[in-house]
Amino acid sequence: MDRMPPWADAVLVPLFSLVLAAILSALVILAIGESPTQAFWLMVDGALMRSAGWGYTLYYATNFIFTGLCVAVAFHARMFNIGGEGQAMIGGLGVALACLFIPFPHWIIALLFVTVAAGVFGAAWALIPAYLQATRGSHIVITTIMFNFIAAAVLNYFLVNLLRPPGSMDPATANFPEATHLPTFQEMFSTAETTLFRGSPANVTFFLAIAACVVVWYLIWRTRLGYEIRAFGHSETAARYAGISPVRITVVSMLISGALAGMMALNTTMGEAERLVMNATEGAGFIGIAVALMGRSHPVGVFLAALLFGFLYQGGAELALWTDIPRELIVVIQALVILFTGALDNMVRMPLEKIFLSLRRKEA
Amino acid sequence: MDYLTLLQILDSTIRLSIPLLLACLAGLFSERAGIFDIGLEGKMLMSAFFSAAVAFTTGSVWIGLLAGILASMSMSAIHGLASITFRGNQLISGVAINFLAAGMTVLIAQDWFRQGGRTPSLEGSARFQELTLPFADALRGVPIFGPLYADLISGHSILVYIGFAVVPLSWWVLYRTRFGLRLRAVGEAPEAVDTAGVSVIGLRFAAVAICGVLCGLAGAYLATGLQAGFVKDMTAGRGFIALAALIFSKWRPWYALSACLLFGLLQAVALRYQSIDLGGFVIPVQFMDALPYILTVVILAGFVGKAIPPRAGGEPYVKER
After folding, report:
1. Does the distance separating the beta carbons of B99 and A141 come in below 8 Å?
2. pLDDT for residue A178
3. CB contact under 8 A, B293 and A344
4. Which residues contact A254 (CB under 8 A, 6 or more apart)?
5. What global pTM score does this model have?
């Protein structure tokens, strides 16, 4: 018997967790001697009240949509891909190599090719952990953690020893050619009279992220592969009995997951920095975990949760600018969201289930 | 390479191995009881900050150590609550703890000291001083053995010797006591332990608490022994190297010692030499940095002896289905 209607499971549980995380964050802000309400309005003001603020919010959200989908796809096959960070780093390497060494005539063609490059590089980085999980039973969580560190070392080697322009001290590639410049929101939406999104990094990749949400939705709920992935996630034995190959599903879903993480690099590397720097991912791979958990692994949920985290990131930067609250407050909020929506899920769920049960008894 | 250089590298190997060793043994107790713990990093970080902050405020490193252990144990309590009481996902809980520690330490450090997320540097009795073992100075003149004893064996802080002592102690507790037998059983077949009338929940909480104490020691050593004060993200992935060492040692204490010494040696060599030239073939420093992780993946893949984790690891125990 279902203890709760599906809408309550999809909406109330994450919302309840969010409220708990918000209360605790407010207490943290109080404890360091600042006013939570003032901090909240400062965040709203900085992130949502001006178009430039929206430009940053949507820029961060773009990253989190990709990494959130990456974790969500793996969750559907009941795998925990912690390696989004490393896959995004290597995806960035793919973006940089394509942008630097292929002479693209126009940004649209560049975007098509570079998306493929980012996806292929990210997927390649997920391939070995996926293959080892499928055939040798090596735990995917541990191998993807290890591959995050190996990715950092690989990226470091490429940037310091191979791709750094001569004479430069900075471990970063040269600037990408002009033809690979992606249109920013400022260039797309400003009219002659009014400048919108002034100086903000949001760019055309945002629409690619929305497209990715649609594609992932279609893939998971409307294709045979998606059905197989979900069946495998629900019960491996049943899936095997139905003739679904566990090796194939494990590898394919991790490749999709890795490709999505790799595509995040389009936004940071091609869209914003226009060169590859050492810490391009900025932990977005890990925020994907919080986003996927909050979004209940559904593309719509992931999209909304990514917007929320985009708001938190931009708002947090504003807080650090105007108050004594450091940016790390966002890391704490992120931790609390992961804790309540992921690990303490039962703690949130149990009281809600009790309420619904007693409501149902009254009806009967 | 001359003898003194070798001694210096081995000396820094010991210093760098100790935090890995303590964290690795911490993970050993937790995972042997069936609770996966990828939050070692966060617990160490929490302890590093609170030990340094309290040692600075009180001027006593011992009170600092106590505070560090308590801070680390409070993280353990959250992990226990999530993964034992509420039967949540242990891996997700570990991830949350890592982020909680990374954020809270900087937030509190900024609030207390206003130095950009660090503590002021520790001096005098607020730090663990290096101990000189008996006769170290008198024996220094003896060839070969003298420098070995005076520079390598003597001259570390007390936590280093405690760290090495924890290895046989863990072995003894796990393999020679009733508690150890039950703890290992609860990681393999909790239903059997339950049938015998022993509390699975109690044993698992005990294991998680021991894990907190050992991570506390590791973090305190980082901030008050190895370095003089806390800086942001000072654990720098050591919790994950410890996790790698744990898998490398296949969840056994003596192997954990050798794995941690090996990974400490890799860190010491990477710290001293930027890149190693092997007659025309250069090993880049990045490869040395990545080697512990690569070795762990190779071990996990089972190409060089298979690493089999405790059977009930990661599974919350439900009494009656």
Report:
1. no
2. 86
3. no
4. A74, A77, A79, A81, A126, A127, A129, A130, A133, A140
5. 0.90
